[in-house]
Design goal:
It is built from 7 helices and no strands. It has 171 residues and is mainly α. The protein has one domain.
Length: 171
């Protein structure tokens, strides 16, 4: 299937799953599963930052419209998209991953994926919960929600990749 069509299908599926299913699950302790940043992570690395930011805003805005969250998803996903090339550049220099077309757990390797996606997801979640709660008197609760949601979201994202992202064919 054409990569462009694959990304459009991923976009729609991530938006609908996040807005219609995951945003309505209650786990307690402030846990909110957010797997939609994985879509931005899976975009080709050679995509210009401007397009990544526009796509991130559109996806976040669509989730906000369906979830009635007033731009929190859009702003957090734009932060994720903005930081992605910076985090990749930081780790690419030491691990020689500059020419990677699509970043996923198979092409990057497990440890590289854990560092890059984990850092990006942490900033996404922190930004999201800072603006959701918007009270620095609740900073402990913000960090609790950030860390617990980060762990669960990260595990769900890894599971989604294992299930849906095809392994590259060995040569």
């Amino acid at each position: 299937m054409n990569k462009f069509v694959t990304h459009i299908i991923r976009f729609v599926v991530f938006v609908l799953v996040q807005a219609l299913i995951l945003n309505h699950l209650e786990f307690g302790w402030g846990i909110l599963i957010m797997v939609y940043p994985l879509f931005i992570f899976l975009l080709p690395n050679d995509l210009k930052i401007t397009f990544s930011l526009i796509i991130a805003f559109a996806m976040g805005f669509a989730i906000d419209l369906l979830s009635d969250t007033f731009g929190i998803h859009a702003s957090a996903l734009v932060v994720f998209a903005y930081l992605k090339p910076l985090v990749f550049a930081r780790f690419a220099k030491q691990d020689n991953y500059e020419n990677l077309k699509e970043a996923n757990i198979y092409t990057m390797g497990t440890s590289w994926f854990i560092y890059t996606f984990g850092i990006l997801l942490f900033f996404h979640h922190l930004w999201f919960f800072l603006f959701e709660i918007a009270n620095f008197g609740e900073i402990i609760y913000i960090f609790q929600k950030t860390v617990l949601s980060l762990i669960v979201s990260f595990l769900f994202s890894v599971g989604l990749q294992i299930i849906f992202v095809p392994k590259p064919k060995e040569r």
